[in-house]
Design a protein that fits this description.
It is a single chain. The protein has 765 residues and is mainly beta. It is built from 5 helices and 64 strands. The chain folds into 8 domains: 31-144, Immunoglobulin-like (Sandwich), CATH 2.60.40; 146-224, Sandwich (Immunoglobulin-like), CATH 2.60.40; 228-314, Immunoglobulin-like, CATH 2.60.40.1120; 319-398, Immunoglobulin-like; 402-480, Carboxypeptidase-like, regulatory domain (Immunoglobulin-like, Sandwich), CATH 2.60.40.1120; 484-567, Sandwich (Immunoglobulin-like); 572-669, Immunoglobulin-like; 674-764, Roll (Pdz3 Domain), CATH 2.30.42.10. Strands 1-4-3-6-7-10 form a 6-stranded antiparallel β-sheet, with no helix packed on it. Strands 58, 59, 60, 61, 62 and 63 form a 6-stranded antiparallel β-sheet that branches. The two termini are 34 Å apart.
Length: 765
C-alpha cells in the first residue's frame, strides 16, 4: 500500500465531509491565508513522510508565479497544487492577477499544476528546488481540461465503494469516492492519462483514459475486484518463527506467459506473522530470508473476498549445486553466471558466478527439481537437477551453439534497423532468452542458443512481430512489423453505452495474426486496438452482461478498420447452495461453474466466459453475467467430489435463476491431479477423426489458438487416423517445457493449420 494511500485513509473522514462542498479533481482545500491581499501563501497538506520535523533547514525554498488563461490574463481563485517526489502535497489559491506562491518547500523535485473550473494547467516539473531558493515567474497556463465523473463499484455486489482513492498518475490530482461510490474530477489533463484506483479490501486497478480537451466524461464507472485476505506465519527448518522474511506470491498458470511470481511488499513480524490482500485463484505463498532456502506454503485455492488464516511457510535448510560449464567445443567456460530456477513456477531461486575454470557453486537452494541456466561467452545452456533437503548434487552444463537468423521488415517489406529481436527457448521463457538488434539492413542473427525450438519476437516503436516454435538452425526468418488498427464501439442490448469493459482479438486461424487483449475505460464505449494483419474475432466482456462478439474483422497493414460494433448480450445470474450429500451441511470453498473447464484449476486461469463462483461459509455461490440458455453445473474441490448427474439450470435474460442445490461428497484423499500436457480433451467423431471436445482457458492449447470442434490430424508428423485414443493421449503428453507439433483443421471442415504447443503443468481437481 502506498504512502499516499495510507495518508489518504487517515484524512478520509475529513475528505468525505468536504466532498459535496468542494470542486473535486484535486486534494482537499488547504487552510491558506492571504499574505498580501494578492498572492496566497500555502500550507502543507501532509506531514513529512520521512519523519522530518519541517524545520527551517528542510523547508527554506519558495516557488511563485502566475496562473494565466491567456498571454497576460491572470486567473484569480485558481487551485494550485505542488507535489514532490515523495508524494508530499501543498496547495494554495491564486490571488489578484493570478499570482500564487509556495513557501517552506523541502529540497527536491516539485511538480506544479493548476485548475480553475473546467480549465487546467498540465503538470510542470519536476522543478529542482534547493535550500534557500526563491524561484519566481513560474507561470501556469490554463487550457480546456476533461471533466470526469462516475462511480467506483464492487465487481461482485455491484454496490458503490466509498472512500476509494482515484489518482491521475504523473499529476498531483486525486480525489476520493463518496458514500455511494461516486467520484468527480472537475478537470484533468487532456489526452492519454492513467487512472489508479485504490480501496481497502480491494485489488488495485490501473486503467488508461483518453479524452480531448473540453470533453465531459460522465458515467465513467470503474469496477474493483474484492481482494482475498490471507494471514499466516513464516517458520524456519526447526519450526521457530522467522522475522523479517519477505513474502512473494506464486499464481498458478499453465503456460509461461509473463511472470508467475510477484513480491507482495510484506515482511514477517517479530513473531513470524504476515498478512496480505491478494487476488483469488490457485496460488502459493513463498518466503525468502537470508541464510535459508526459500520456502513455500501448501497450494491454496482462494475464493474472491475470502478470509484465510493459518497459512504456514517453512523455510528450508538449503542445498548446494556444484557444477561445470563447458563451451560448445568442450573446453571450460571462463566467466559468466548460472541461475537456478525452482519452485512450482520455475522462478529464480539463486545465482552464482562462473570462475575462470568453468566451475560454479550455488548454495541455499530449496529442495526439489531445479533448472540451471548458464550464460557465458555469448551463449546459453541449461541442465536439470533434483535436490534433496540440505543435499548436494553435481551437474554439467553444455553451452548451446544453435543459431537463428533472418530479417525484420516493415509493412511495405522494407528492412527495419535497430529493432529489438528476442529468442526465448520453449519451456524456459525469459530465463533462457537471447537478444540482439537488427542491423541497418534489417538482418539479425541470434547465436549461442540452447534448446530445440524458440519463440521469436521483434519490436520497434509501435510495431511488433512474433513467431512461435521456430527450430534452432532456421535461416531466413522474416519478422514483419506490419501493423494495422481496429476501432469501434461496444453497446448494451438497449443500445446504451458501457464504460468498463475488456476487449480481446483472436485470429480466426492460428498463425494468421496475433491475439491481443486490453482493458478499456471509456464512457463512450469506444475502443481502438493495434493488430497485426489478419482476420479476427473481436469479443467484449463487461460487468452486468454476457459477452458479445464481431466475427470476420479484417485488418490490413497500415490501415484502420473502423466502425466495428460489438453488442453485449443480456445476461442472468445463477445462484445456489453447495451441500454435503450425507449431512446436508453447507460446504465452503467449492468451485461451481457452468462448464467443466472453468470449474477446474486450469480453466480458472483464463478470462473467457462467465467463469464460475466459489461457495462461501454458508455454502452459497453466485455466477454472474451468464448468457441465456440451459446449463449443467459442475463442481470441483480438492476435498470433495460432485454427485452425478450434475444439476441443471435454465438462465433467463435479466433474471436470477431459481436457487440450485449442488450436492457433493467427501473424496478419498486429495483429488488434485496434475500432468504435463496441453490442456484439451478429445473424442472420435462419427467420421472416426479425433475431434477436440474441450480446451481449457489459460492452458497451452488455448494460448496456441486451438478451439473446441477442431480436429487433430497429426501429432509430430504422425497421422492420427491409425492411432487409438490412448496413443493420441500419450503422444500429446510429455515433459513440462517440451513441445508437440499438432496439425489441425478448424471446425473439422475449415482451413488447416499447424501449431507448436509447449507442454505445461495441467492441474485440475
Amino acid at each position: 500500500m502506498s504512502k499516499r494511500f495510507r495518508w489518504s485513509l487517515a484524512v478520509a473522514a475529513l475528505a468525505l465531509l468536504i466532498w459535496w462542498l468542494w470542486p473535486a479533481g484535486s486534494p482537499a482545500p488547504s487552510a491558506s491565508a492571504r499574505a498580501d491581499g494578492g498572492a496566497a501563501s500555502s500550507v502543507a497538506l501532509a506531514a513529512d513522510l520521512d519523519g522530518s520535523d519541517g524545520g527551517p533547514e528542510a523547508t527554506a525554498a519558495s516557488l511563485s508565479g502566475r496562473v494565466l488563461s491567456g498571454p497576460d490574463a491572470g486567473v484569480a481563485e485558481a487551485l494550485v497544487v505542488a507535489e514532490d517526489s515523495q508524494g508530499r502535497l501543498q496547495q494554495t489559491r491564486s490571488g489578484d492577477g493570478g499570482r500564487y506562491r509556495f513557501d517552506g518547500l523541502a529540497p527536491g523535485g516539485w511538480t506544479l499544476a493548476a485548475q480553475a473550473g473546467a480549465a487546467i494547467a498540465a503538470p510542470l516539473g519536476p522543478i529542482p528546488v534547493s535550500p534557500g531558493d526563491d524561484l519566481r515567474d513560474i507561470d501556469l497556463s490554463l487550457v480546456p481540461g476533461v471533466a470526469v465523473s462516475g462511480r467506483v463499484l464492487d465487481l461482485r455486489s455491484r454496490n458503490g465503494v466509498p472512500g476509494a482513492q482515484l489518482q491521475i498518475l504523473a499529476t498531483p490530482f486525486s480525489t476520493l469516492s463518496g458514500p455511494d461510490g461516486r467520484y468527480r474530477f472537475a478537470a484533468i489533463p487532456a489526452g492519454r492519462q492513467t487512472l489508479l484506483v485504490l480501496a481497502d479490501a480491494y485489488l488495485p486497478r490501473k486503467v488508461a483514459i483518453d479524452y480531448p480537451g473540453g470533453a465531459t466524461a460522465a458515467g465513467l464507472d470503474v469496477y474493483l475486484r474484492p481482494a482475498t485476505h490471507v494471514e499466516g506465519t513464516v517458520v524456519g527448518p526447526d519450526g521457530a518463527p522467522v522475522a523479517g522474511a519477505s513474502l512473494w506470491l506464486w499464481r498458478y498458470q499453465a503456460t509461461d506467459e509473463g511472470p508467475a511470481l510477484a513480491p507482495l511488499g510484506v515482511t514477517s513480524d517479530a513473531d513470524g506473522r504476515f498478512a496480505a490482500d491478494v487476488e483469488a485463484g490457485v496460488c502459493r505463498f513463498v518466503a525468502r530470508s537470508r541464510g535459508r532456502a526459500e520456502g513455500q506454503s501448501e497450494q491454496l485455492d482462494l475464493a474472491e473476498g475470502q478470509r484465510r488464516t493459518g497459512v504456514q511457510v517453512r523455510l528450508g535448510a538449503g542445498g548446494e549445486v556444484d557444477g561445470l560449464v563447458l563451451l560448445p567445443g568442450g573446453a571450460p567456460a571462463s566467466g559468466g553466471q548460472v541461475q537456478a530456477l525452482g519452485g512450482a513456477g520455475r522462478w529464480p531461486v539463486g545465482q552464482a558466478p562462473i570462475d575462470r575454470s568453468g566451475h560454479f557453486q550455488l548454495a541455499g537452494l530449496p529442495a526439489g527439481h531445479l533448472a540451471l541456466v548458464a550464460d557465458a561467452a555469448q551463449a546459453r545452456g541449461s541442465a536439470d537437477a533434483d535436490l534433496s533437503e540440505g543435499g548436494q548434487v553435481e551437474v554439467q552444463i553444455q553451452l548451446g551453439d544453435g543459431t537463428v537468423d533472418g530479417t525484420v521488415v516493415d509493412a511495405d517489406g522494407q528492412p527495419v534497423g535497430g529493432a529489438l529481436v528476442v529468442a526465448r527457448p520453449v519451456g524456459l521463457g525469459a530465463a533462457g532468452e537471447r537478444q540482439t538488434l537488427s542491423g541497418a539492413d534489417g538482418r539479425f542473427k541470434l547465436s549461442g542458443l540452447s534448446g530445440n525450438r524458440f519463440d521469436l519476437a521483434a519490436s520497434k516503436d509501435q510495431g511488433s512481430a512474433e513467431l512461435r516454435g521456430i527450430a534452432a538452425g532456421t535461416h531466413g526468418v522474416q519478422l514483419s512489423l506490419a501493423i494495422g488498427r481496429v476501432s469501434g464501439y461496444v453497446t448494451t442490448p438497449d443500445s446504451g453505452g458501457v464504460s468498463d469493459f475488456t476487449l480481446s482479438a483472436e485470429p480466426e486461424v492460428p498463425g494468421h495474426g496475433r491475439p491481443r487483449s486490453k482493458h478499456v475505460l471509456d464512457g463512450r464505449g469506444e475502443f481502438s486496438l493495434p493488430l497485426a494483419p489478419g482476420a479476427y474475432v473481436l469479443r467484449a466482456t463487461a460487468p452486468g452482461y454476457a459477452d458479445g462478439e464481431a466475427r470476420g474483422v479484417s485488418v490490413a497493414a497500415g490501415q484502420e478498420t473502423a466502425g466495428v460494433h460489438i453488442e453485449l448480450r443480456p445476461s442472468g445470474t445463477v445462484e445456489g447452495l453447495v451441500l454435503d450429500a450425507t449431512s446436508g451441511a453447507p460446504v465452503v470453498g467449492v468451485n461451481v461453474a457452468i462448464d467443466r473447464s472453468h470449474a477446474w484449476a486450469v480453466g480458472r486461469t483464463g478470462s473467457g466466459g462467465a467463469g464460475g463462483g466459489t461457495s462461501g461459509v454458508d455454502g452459497r455461490f453466485v455466477i454472474r453475467d451468464v448468457a441465456p440458455g440451459n446449463y449443467a453445473l459442475f463442481a470441483s474441490s480438492p476435498d470433495y467430489e460432485q454427485n452425478w448427474p450434475p444439476p441443471s439450470v435454465a438462465v433467463q435474460p435479466g433474471e436470477d435463476s431459481p436457487s440450485v442445490e449442488v450436492r457433493v461428497h467427501r473424496a478419498k484423499g486429495n483429488r488434485e491431479q496434475e500432468y504435463a500436457g496441453v490442456g484439451l480433451s478429445f473424442f472420435p467423431n462419427r467420421q472416426g477423426n479425433m475431434q477436440v471436445v474441450e480446451v481449457f482457458p489459460g492452458g497451452p492449447a488455448w494460448e496456441a489458438g486451438i478451439r473446441s470442434g477442431d480436429e487433430i490430424l497429426a501429432i509430430d508428423g504422425q497421422p492420427t487416423a491409425a492411432l487409438s485414443m490412448g496413443d493420441v493421449s500419450n503422444r500429446i503428453r510429455g515433459p513440462v517445457g517440451s513441445e508437440v507439433t499438432l496439425d489441425m483443421q478448424r471446425g473439422g471442415n475449415g482451413p488447416g493449420y499447424e501449431v507448436v504447443v509447449p507442454r505445461g503443468d495441467i492441474k485440475f481437481f
